[in-house]
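Quick check before the chapter quiz. The format below is the same one you will see on the exam, so make sure you can read both the input and the output lines.
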Amino acid sequence: MARQLQVLSAEDAQHFIEKGYVRVKGCVDPALAKAWTDEAYTRLGYDPNDRSTWTKEIVWLDRHNTGDIKDISPKGWAALCDVTGGPERIESKVMEIESTHFTTIDSTEWSDAFVMNLNRGADKPWQPPSPEAGGWHKDGSFFRHFLDSREQALLTVVYWSDVAHKGGGTFIAPDSIKVVARYLAEHPEGVDDGDSFSELINECQEFEEITGETGDYIILHPFMLHTSSRNHSGKVRFMTNPPVVLKEPMNLNRDDPEEFSLIERATLHALGVERYDFQPTAPREERWQVIG
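Here is the expected output.
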């Protein structure tokens, strides 16, 4: 039998399948958001009330505070499990092995590794979401991409501040999931990260600006092409992109169709089929070591 949804409604699930994303509101305690974002200014040596101290337009912070999602945000954890098919399908902790360093990725934690858009692009005209906005990409520079890849199982966004129109919200192209899925199906040998995915934005017709409120958790299909936007709001945008890794590659040909996860259902919907027997024709070249 299909797993019963904990947080998402049937309408939410269908929206994810058809549009490739779902928004879950109220996933961060406002007090925690304030404590962590206030501390971020201190870590940078910026005065939130004195813009002359802001030496950069956008900053990527390292993790300082961390916590289990199920403790920080039980609602967010339940939503994540709804989309992935359950906690048993989520890899807890892995070490990404690079040539010069190691990076630990934990799918079960959230942190204050903020992307702070202070005023990036404020000195330039507003650019609405379109191919001309530039910078469109598919996440995952550290692995060869296959139709069923597990390394970048989801693209997720947590807003730790309110994000209004023209406030630096992420731009997305919902119909890119269909374009990317079919492209990957045509390349069972895999695709290295690069310009190939970026160029696919020219085949897309749907574009959205993801605005939101503090505590919004937006869960997006991993094939969603996206890009950053300019911040004309006069307010700092705080967001994180917590990684999600699956224990196994997606299974698009399950014996029991009720066992398909929402990620798998959305992928099959993008391909226009009920099931798909994907077989990679080249090594996955995974650089992972499970450490937890």
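If your answer matched, good. The mean pLDDT is 92.
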